[in-house]
Design a protein that fits this description.
about 500 residues; mainly alpha; Amino acid/polyamine transporter I; about 70% helix; globular
């Protein structure tokens, strides 16, 4: 008797798609990265503008991806779009980079953030508790907790899409309600605050603040013209990272009900909801704290947004609302946020490796479905590599690697939209990109400008990311020849 082939089950509704988009986007970034942005641009107007520009281009990208997802509602999402618009090698380079840096790097960074804030509640699990030290290599309790969280989420998703869906929906709803509650409370407390007038009295005066690590001396440089443009590009590393992973819903297109309709709607509503929350959160920060501060100040007001302790702007703002209880309240919220975020990332990422395996461009085993109708081996391989990355570097390092690679492939994918309009004009398009060709072209120009800015001003991190992509070229031919020899 022939064994029935296990295939993906279309169990995910529009609501589930929205929770995957929103839940995967909201991790720890919104609570942390505004400190670095404030040091980089030094003004409330440019702090908000950085988030607004990121939100704007992310919505444009989501609307553009909506057309591609409606055309090709297959597991693998962006990998499939690149393969069809260009050739299998370009698709492979995306999948290769996704596996090595983008998806697994983000999973690792979010897991480390989860562990750091867990350490606030349980000090024995903090990053200060070093369990092993060999020369400069250290393993902390937080790193092991980060790995444990990845393993647990992988196990949950290994046992079926239903488990991942329930977890994603629960955690996304919880953190959205909690965030909206904090925003409302923050606006109420900030209503009579002196910081509105303090921050916006000179709202367009842009400065970069650099701290000498040896002496703790603060050097402030005025920004204008090209230097301001460059600073904005560097500042957007944080906002782009915080707004990333919206495309993960395209990876699971094979499990979405009525994907031609529900994926474009999931992309639009998920990104819009998160963008509004991010902007409102930063308005609350500006109502509760001064932008500028000193690194050695004794309290949250003195340190300001720029020098919030351990970059934790969310905790500093919450202190103005809840007082001494703020650290615990925010730690719990960020734990919920990051855990739910990583569930969406882990659930979605494995589907890309599955699609690559089916095309003979990854190990054949990753294309196998387990008895729970999910790509189990792909989930395990992703878990192992993300866990290794947890031990490899700091949150900021992973963030910088991810952003450049992400932008590079977003640009190629949206250029692919133009290519497919010419290459396949007769293919059914249940949804067409809003504002085409102006808005997609605008996204390409803005994203290219940011990439050039990062190459110039963040070269220590962007060049390694580029090298990873280029190494994928010989790997592609090795995998292709291996597949031919083994008739994959």
């Amino acid at each position: 008797m022939a064994t029935e082939k296990v295939v993906f089950k279309r169990n995910l509704s529009l609501f589930a798609g929205i929770t995957i988009v929103a839940g995967s986007m909201i991790g720890s970034g919104i609570f942390i990265v505004s400190a670095d942005i404030a040091r980089t641009v030094g003004s409330p107007a440019y702090l908000l503008l950085t988030w607004l520009i990121t939100g704007f281009i992310t919505i444009i990208a989501a609307l553009s991806y909506g057309e591609l997802s409606a055309m090709m509602p297959k597991a693998g999402g962006q990998y499939v779009y690149l393969k069809e618009a260009y050739n299998p090698m370009v698709g492979f380079l995306y999948g290769w980079t996704l596996f090595l840096v983008i998806q697994t790097g983000t999973i690792a960074a979010v897991a480390v953030a989860f562990a750091k804030f867990t350490g606030v509640l349980v000090p024995v699990l903090s990053e200060k508790n070093i369990l092993l030290e060999i020369y400069s290599f250290k393993i902390s309790a937080a790193q092991l907790l980060a790995i444990a969280s990845i393993v647990v989420l992988t196990f949950i998703n290994y046992r079926g899409i239903k488990n991942g869906k329930i977890l994603q929906t629960t955690f996304t709803i919880t953190k959205l309600i909690a965030l909206l509650g904090l925003i409302v409370l923050g606006l109420v407390v900030a209503f009579n605050s002196k910081f509105w007038s303090l921050n916006f009295a000179d709202m367009w005066s842009a400065t970069t603040t650099i701290v000498d690590k040896g002496t703790n001396a603060v050097n402030i440089h005025q920004l204008g013209g090209l230097s301001l443009f460059a600073a904005m590009g560097v500042a957007m590393v944080g906002t782009i990272f915080s707004s990333d992973a919206w495309n993960n819903v395209t990876f699971i297109a094979g499990e979405i009900k009525n994907p031609q309709r529900n994926i474009p709607l999931s992309l639009f509503w998920g990104v819009l909801i998160v963008t509004i929350i991010y902007i409102l959160s930063n308005i609350v920060y500006l109502g509760l704290l001064p932008v500028k501060g000193a690194p050695d100040a004794a309290d949250v007001v003195g340190r300001g947004i720029q020098f919030a302790a351990s970059e934790r702007v969310g905790v500093a703002a919450a202190f103005q609302i809840f007082g001494s209880s703020s650290a615990i309240i925010m730690a719990v919220l960020i734990m919920v946020s990051t855990f739910g975020c990583n569930n969406g990332l882990i659930l979605a990422g494995a589907r890309v490796y599955y699609a690559m395996g089916n095309d003979g461009l990854f190990f054949k085993q990753v294309a196998k479905m387990n008895k729970f109708a999910v790509p189990g081996i792909a989930l395990i391989i992703q878990c192992v590599w993300a866990s290794i990355l947890c031990l490899s570097g700091k949150y900021g390092d992973l963030l910088d690697y991810v952003v450049f690679a992400v932008l590079l492939f977003y640009i190629l994918t949206i250029i692919g939209l133009f290519i497919l309009r010419k290459k396949r004009p007769d293919v059914e398009r249940p949804y067409k990109a809003f504002g085409y060709p102006v808005l997609p072209a605008l996204y390409i120009l803005i994203a290219l400008a940011i990439c050039i800015d990062l190459i110039i001003y963040k070269s220590d991190y962007t060049w390694p990311g580029m090298i990873i992509v280029l190494i994928g070229i010989p790997v592609y031919f090795i995998m292709k020849n291996f597949s031919k020899r083994n008739n994959i």
